[in-house]
Write a structure and sequence with these properties.
The complex is a heterodimer. By secondary structure, chain A is α/β, with parallel strands linked by helices. Chain A contains 16 helices and 20 strands. Chain B is of the alpha+beta class. Chain B folds into three domains: 152 residues, Gyrase A, domain 2; 82 residues, Alpha-Beta Plaits, CATH 3.30.70; 125 residues, Aminomethyltransferase beta-barrel domains (Elongation Factor Tu (Ef-tu), domain 3, Beta Barrel), CATH 2.40.30.110. The mean pLDDT of chain B is 97. Classes of the chains: A alpha/beta, B alpha+beta.
Amino acid sequence: MKRFDAIVIGAGHNGLTNAAYLAKAGLDVLVVEKNDYIGGAAVSRELQPGWIYSNCSYVCSMMRQAIHRDLDLARHGLLLVPYLGTANFADDGSTLLSYPDADANHNELKRLSPRDADAMHRLEADLARYSQLIRKTLLRTPPDPATFRIRDFRELLYLAKQFWSLGEKEIYEYIRFFTMSAAEFLDDYFENDLVKTTMATPGIIGTALGVCSPGSAYILLHHVMGDVDGNIGAWGLARGGMGAISQALAGAAKEHGAEIRTNAGVAQIIVDNGKATGVVLENGDEIDSRIVVSNLDARRTFTRIMDRKDLPPGIYEKAKNFKIRGSSGKVNIALSGLPKFTNVPDNRYVNRGGQSFCGSMRTLERAYDCWKRGRWSEDPFIESVIPSAWDPTVAPPGKHWMSNFIQYCPPELADGPWTPEKRDQFGMTVVDKIERYAPGFKDLIVHMEVRTPHDIENEVGLTEGNIFQGELTIDQLLFNRPFPGYAQYRMPIGNMYMCGSSTHPGGGVSSACGANAAREILKDLKRPNTVPRDDFYDE
Amino acid sequence: MTQTDPYAGERLKHSAFHEREAALNLRNAWSSWNGYLFADYYYDPDYEYFCIRNTCGTYDICPMQKYMIRGSGAETMLDRMVTRNVGKIGMHRVAYAAWCTDEGRLVDDGTIFKLAADEFMLTCGSPCSAWLEMSAFGFADVSITDVSDEIAGLSLQGPTSCAVLKRMDLTDIETMKPFDIRHFPYRGDTLMVSRTGFTGDLGYELWIKPALGLDLWDDVYTAGEDFGIQPYGEAATNMARLEAGFIMPAMEFNEALKTIHFEHDQTPFELNLGWLVDFDKPHFNGRRALLEESRRGPKYTLTKLDIEGNKPATEAYIYDSRRCRDEVGYVTSAMWSPSAKANIALAMIRTEALSKKLWAEIYYEKELRQYSKVARCTVQKKPFWAPARARATPPPDY
């Protein structure tokens, strides 16, 4: 029977990236995927004829440019198009538009608060400074601070050097920042509630924290540190939907000789004498391999597709207690036309792109309260994008599709399991809220897909539907991700690795986890490294 | 008594589309081209660039120079003037062409439209009546008319451009091959469409009499509403043409007739346009000098470079060693390519150095402080951007 050099479990974007780099180094790589389509949470799906939904992740800013370039993803069909602005809607009917032009933006902020308009410059500089530091770590393997290996020591020194270069004042601020809430952080800058709310929403997206929960300030940073072509904080759409990213990565992986098999869910990782030797598929097939790489999240990997007896004591518990709480839903809507929003000018550039139904700081916190009680938010935070306003390939001409990301929605309800009826009720909560800001919205709906965390877990395989494959809190970041002592992509079983967002640098369509894991694997297999350095910040 | 504008002589001319363009130029980002007020950009250069690559956009080519060359001697006259074989241009076809001085230095480049056996339209970036008339000297039955202000041109470029023209009911537009010309009845007049452009992407150029300019604009924009249409200016054009590897006057070449210093102008071979020079055809301007150059090889060769890192190598020198001791060339245009995700440049490099390893010394600024770095350059043969749709017939709808 054929023995592969490497099996990658899960054809999500990180798994495909990992496979591409292993194959590029000359390894015989097989990617196995449980669904009949690839991409994991970076997919484009035609669920209504003519409409192509990015039905999980929907925008992109973290994709490592060095990888995009190195794997020649442009030739494999990937084009990332930045989108321009967002309209933010407050409960009291007021709005705040964010424009791509700095002066226009300043004028708009001034309308709400001259003080906040000025403070925005300070916030942007501070966030850019904080981002710089984290961005430098994205395509690097975190050091293990407990070992005395030269390599770890050197990497710690590198981080320390970057850290000290911030200057004394900023070092204090930075340490404080990691444990702060988004609300406290923004109180240092702004007085106007809508300005604060607008800036606070990235702090809760995808996380089971509220704007007032410690740690949400970092989540905020995680969402604004990406870039499109060097414009930090900008977000882009993948032409053809997020699946275009996975398709391009798959194209690169295949070009380098990797094989991708769909409808091939893994039942178990085979462990022999403390070493992974292959996988058993759900259909019973056994496939041998020199190494096994899991792109599944840490909890799923260790509690679902491994035999507890094969694991060292403690790891199972760590995996079981890995913080991976589902908190978000997604409602994808096919529309017969563009919705018209109240209280915003008909600005063809800004008004079409993004909408943030953020309400107020209080509304955001109340929405979180619902989640804590095991209910979906009655008045949820909704972040919407209408990709078809930019991308001519995802809806018929003149028609549109709207991606709505909803915070909060629990993976399990207090009053019993999710049912199709409850899911529909959740969907209607969302539609009703949008209708409040866009009268006539409901009449435009052609088709709608409602996804609760429960659905996302079942379809995509993300435990509890957590979009980051594990919370991005400091206890689960850098050398703590997924578990202390196992942050360098090697797992407690020999010949077994992890390459998903459960590893450093965490969630987001960045390809960084998969690439970092490949670099470590190639080191172990004594193969030349094929993974590029992050050339963007080499200066 | 009516007040006359004392500054009239200094004000720039308005193109046939100006009224609509001015309304859309939210940033008032104007510069000029051949005496016309001309947009650098309208809203955001990057956004407009992405319209060319992702949806579609229009570019005002009214300021481009257009000449009608008519008469039974028109073809032989043009053939004598330009380096490529005009006799090989098919009826209702467009050809890119270059013309040189006797010394084989490039005067200008442009496109030749064969409209009839005895009727050609020549378009180019800079006025060249004098050169045309000089070139026509001695040819019987050739008339040259400057129609720059009599024909309005609107370039429609991008992946949805064909879909927009289809929606305008231009019948069978999708059967047009690259460089084809078609005429369509339009509002009691004629709309000429050529499948040409300066972006390396799918695209068309629409030619109309100026009086119908605003009607055409409105029709194109009505049809384009669902296809992401947006006007773009010089900034986006310059990005797109660099990705496509096209040359620009005053960037890659200095027009020979305006060149002061010896050999600070260029030859077609230096500009990597050797394919435009046909030595098999009858005598043409610069033939002897170019023949000689083709034998010994050009001193410089315009080269496409893929440069490591992300700092555009604007105005960088090229060296054949990392230590930057011996200069072997200079960058003419450089940018970060958002589509190719590469740090690209066109550079004039001494031909003999092309076989060596090349390095660019790049200067850049970070918060007022100057930095420099030396980056490895890789010579690239193909354009940085050349999507299949640009050549496909029929082209896709997006």
